[in-house]
Amino acid sequence: MLPNKARRRETLNNPFEQRLETVLRDKLDDCQALIACERLSGGANQETYRLVIRHSTGDRPLALRRAAGGSAEDLSELNVGLATEARLFEIARDFAVPAPEILYVLRADDGLGDGFVMSWLEGETLGHRIVRAPEFEAVRPRLAAQCGEILARIHAIDVSATGLEGLLPALSPRDEIEQTWSRYRALETAQPMIDYTARWLLDHVPAAPDRALVHSDFRNGNLMIDASGVIGVLDWEIAHIGDPVRDLGWLCTNSWRFGRDDLPVGGFGNRDDLLNAYNTHADVDVTEEHLHFWQVFGSFWWAVGCLAMADQFRSGPDRSVERPAIGRRSSECQADCVNLLIPGPFDRIEAPTAGRRADLPHAEELLDSVAAFLREDASTATGGRTRFFAKVAANSLDIVKRESKLGPALEHSEYASLRALLKRPGDRDTLRWELVSGLRDGTIDPGLPGLARHLRDTVLNQLAIDQPGYPALATAAKKA
Fold it and tell me: Could you write out the DSSP letters of every residue in 292-353?
């Protein structure tokens, strides 16, 4: 049998890896060979690889971050570009923000698309492990305060002196709402709770907020953690200049607590620790109202982001099993908006009971068997992205199973509720679009009697199909 290193070297036989090795040997000091290249499962918008290079003092792990599909980036209002992101990493390190060292930014003539190579940080980024794994038990109570201090450092960076003012977009809170709402409308899907939330946000825009560098994706899952705390702030691709409290609200958004609803800061800490540390180091006083606004915005923004993932699955280039699964997570964020803005009772739809059947295995049994195979056999026998996608596929089959049970009743309930609310005939889809259009053009008042109850019932019951274990459902049930 070949030695382990030799076996790993034999896997570098596709054109991408061969080209990458050529670039690394040419651009990095003392790089003799690329001996491993593994694409990691994290990163919905960009590709991330763990590399191992050989040089005179031994093997060294590195990270490669590059544009999805390996092509030049199609920059949008949500993406500053990987070259600018690399510059943000460099500036962050200059201001004592923990971040990896940038070693090389890819050029067009490298033939690898847009991206950069950086040092490898050894730590944990998986949010569910950070909030639950025993090895982080001692450090978790300190993380909220560390995040507050790090955010204060980020927001203190002089965007003019560093040249960021010319690189990054400047967005007011109203700009961010309108931009996100416009992006959602372009998807041509009718989700009334998203439009309701947009109306609420526009009515509660903070007055004259401060202006600073905003990371925009500072959350559990984009922080590298080890036993000492935060050792890396990752994923700067949507940074901009705007209201710094946006970062604080995003860190507190329910989507990034990973089931720990009792700890509102990333699932690992409390608001007092976060705000006390931030207010001390930033010399400001963030109010609960200001934080609440950006927490609502965070759920609104990610509700739209999830739908955009599904749209990317439909239009390409990434048709992975993860994209439509993330699309169904929009109901989680919409449910968070319900609990933040219109809490109250809701009527939960129950699945009809089915007796034992003696005929051929029915659809539910087939779905159960395939999901079990993916979750227990396929994911165990594989690793990396394949293992991750096997679990995602099993979860998607669970959604299909719940939808077959609960979907017809939810459609009937929503239709009856829309008829009563709008007081006009029409099929369910037509009436839903009428509700959405009225919320958008202002002809329907968000305070319309019965609207809050309609939104609670439809959104929360959709969540019961998409992800019944998501904490927003239990939170809503307590308020019923």
Answer: HHHHHHHHHHHHHHHHHHHHHHHHSS---THHHHHHTTHHHHHHHHHHHHS-----PPPPPP
